[in-house]
Amino acid sequence: MRLVKHYIFNIKTKIPFSELPEIVHRFMSENYLTSHRFLYFFEDILDYNETKDEALPRSSCAKILKDCPSLGEIRYHNGRSYNRSDKLWLSNIDRADDFPESDLLPLMKKIHRRYGFCESNLYYFDIDFFGKRTCFERDYSVALRMSKTDKIPFDPTLYMECQPYGSGITLHRDACAENYLKLSVDLLHDGIVMDATPYYEAMQKLLPQIKATSSLSIYLSEEEKQRIKEINQSAEPVLQKCRDFFANRLPFTSSQNLFESNYSIAKPLKKLAKKYGYTYKLVWNGGVYSLEKRTAKGNVIYIDIDSGPSHYDLGVGVSYQGVGFNHTIGNANQTPTNQQETDAFLENILLTVSEFENTLLPTLDRLFPETPGWFIPSDFP
Hints:
By secondary structure, the protein is of the alpha+beta class. It is built from 10 helices and 17 strands. Helix 8 runs parallel beside helix 9.
């Protein structure tokens, strides 16, 4: 098992992309760290009416290759064959040879201003946090999921930009201004979960005006995955009873208001969290909240609440989570138009979950292993 703590600094347009490598190097120097592997990923998305041969000569990939031929050959994804966009891309993520960062540094301002990539990613991986070097690995889960969704053969290069994980720093820039610096730290060493807070604080000092969000990723070994698969299969009858329990009790309407409803979610949720013993969290400023509670075995009952910024409708999900598993067991959706309707809907949700805790939860909890205190539940299914 690998535990990787992520701190994402949402830079947007506050710092030019070309200046971020200098910040990374300063961070590593001040904290006596070394990156042992440098990776890159650059991508063009083709216009729908444009063929590969038409796009290739004037593509962003072709432009950067003129300045840096050592980046390698331009590769192509035929997304149009399964109703997605065609892509041209350059990367060394799946190459064993080392690529010197020094070849790219003189081109940073061109990456930022001239080439026009749809997406650019630079990765400083295999950083020796806590004095321990761990090599990056590739997570194929997104590619596997998309091959299943799109009914296409599995391609290990699909969504390659999402695959690298481990101890490192990722610099991301795209055409939608979703620009960020992600600090990722392997926490589990010799059976001990380390504290990455000092590294986060050191990076925060270098990015004082940039807010950061954190998350924890768990990567299981093949043996651990097989064990969880067996547990999930044996627990399926009880999980189905849980799903039936909520389906028979929670209201679900698919309609939306055609106007912005006037109600608050945060205020009643805070009261309900205190009343029923849950931890309240604002997940996203656009109207996404959560309530969570630990079970007797440390697993988590997680309630996500999403109204969106418009409040056109109000959706709720109930899940049961732990290390390696995340089971959605309940869903509800309503279209409240005022505070009274909203309060009643949310109160009904918590009453139903409370009934679940006193009936089916003990049986469900006995089927799953204990979850340690460091576990952070997922905000999304």
